[in-house]
């Protein structure tokens, strides 16, 4: 994809490929705490080298356009869930899944937790100077077990019906599972009781309609996911040692971007 750098007015401007905000760059050996978002943590898990180039060397990856259709389903679901949160009633889909005892969690910080850019949930991981944080889509409350349930809204368009098995075994959904694991870890570290099962609220757009007719229709499915956040701290410790090293880590040989750069360098 060709990505052109633009200023807020939409004019193209020279792209330097470098970060300008010093606070987003880590100095190996620094003692000050350093914030790492859930998505940057996921970058680390995908490729240590690109993560290092970004966070330590300040080299920016090409930007991606926003996913406005997905963001719109998130926004509309948020409105629905906020209405239920206000009234402390289960969402309309919960009955189908025997979740009548579950309601959207009401907490004074809910908007802060959902603000991925300026807020989020966070935890300072012990034995490191890393503050891991992430902006959640939602969190629900199990009134029977008195536990939080982590939840993420996901939108897609697929001809096949969504089943928990097909959804969770899809390799492209691995990072979604990491996302829920990290949120569960963060809530647990913040002192909350967290249910062992989280949910993906999957909105799957029908593609077999005879025509568009000005609207997309979705099938909605709750996919339960058995959380496992036992691995998170060990990976944060590994990430910390990568950040504090002066050595560039290996790249991921499966990466098409690196293959593209290598081929270009040969010209
Ligand atoms: S393999 Fe190369 S381009 Fe791909 S993520 Fe890693 S450093 Fe970046």
Summarize the structure in words.
The structure is a single chain. The chain is α/β, with parallel strands linked by helices. The chain has a domain of 169 residues. The chain has 8 helices and 8 strands. A 5-stranded mixed sheet has the order 2-5-6-7-8. It has a 3-stranded mixed sheet with strand order 1-4-3. α1 packs across α2. The chain starts with 33 loop residues before the first strand and ends with a helix. Bound molecules: iron/sulfur cluster. The site of iron/sulfur cluster has 8 residues, from α2 and α8.
SSE diagram, text form:
Blueprint: E1 34-37, H1 38-46, H2 48-55, H3 68-87, E2 102-104, H4 110-114, E3 121-124, E4 130-134, E5 138-142, E6 147-157, H5 164-169, H6 174-189, E7 197-205, E8 218-226, H7 232-243, H8 256-265
Helix pairs in contact: 1-2
The structure holds iron/sulfur cluster.
Iron/sulfur cluster binds next to α2 and α8.
Low-confidence stretches are none
What's the shape? globular
N- to C-terminal distance: 19 Å
**Number of DSSP helical runs:** 8
Q: How many β strands by DSSP?
A: 8
- Please state the average pLDDT score: 96
Structural class: alpha/beta
Sheet bearing the most strands, described?
A: 5 strands, mixed
Radius of gyration: 20 Å
Please provide the ordered H/E string of secondary-structure elements.
Answer: EHHHEHEEEEHHEEHH
Strand order of the largest sheet: 2-5-6-7-8
Relative strand content: 15-25%
Bound molecules: iron/sulfur cluster
Helical fraction equals: 25-40%
């Amino acid at each position: 994809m060709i990505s052109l750098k633009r200023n807020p007015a939409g004019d193209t401007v020279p792209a330097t490929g470098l970060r300008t905000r010093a606070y987003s760059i880590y100095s190996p050996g620094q003692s000050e705490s350093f914030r790492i978002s859930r998505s940057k943590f996921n970058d680390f898990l995908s490729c240590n080298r690109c993560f290092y180039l970004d966070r330590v060397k300040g080299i920016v990856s090409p930007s991606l356009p926003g996913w406005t259709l997905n963001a719109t389903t998130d926004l509309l679901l948020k409105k629905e869930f906020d209405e239920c949160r206000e009234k402390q009633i289960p969402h309309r889909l919960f009955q189908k899944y025997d979740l009548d005892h579950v309601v959207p969690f009401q907490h004074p910080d809910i908007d802060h937790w959902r603000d991925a850019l300026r807020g989020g949930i966070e935890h300072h991981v012990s034995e490191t100077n890393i503050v891991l944080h992430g902006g959640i889509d939602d969190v629900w409350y199990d009134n029977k077990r008195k536990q939080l349930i982590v939840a993420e809204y996901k939108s897609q368009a697929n001809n096949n019906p969504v089943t928990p098995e097909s959804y969770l075994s899809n390799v492209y959904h691995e990072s979604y599972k990491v996302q829920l694991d990290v949120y569960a870890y963060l809530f647990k570290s913040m002192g909350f009781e967290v249910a062992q099962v989280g949910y993906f609220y999957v909105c799957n757009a029908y593609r077999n309609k005879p025509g568009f007719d000005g609207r997309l229709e979705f099938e909605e499915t709750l996919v339960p996911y058995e959380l496992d956040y036992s691995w998170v701290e060990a990976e944060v410790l590994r990430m910390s040692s990568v950040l504090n090293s002066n050595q560039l880590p290996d790249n991921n040989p499966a990466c098409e971007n690196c293959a593209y750069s290598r081929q270009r360098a040969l010209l």
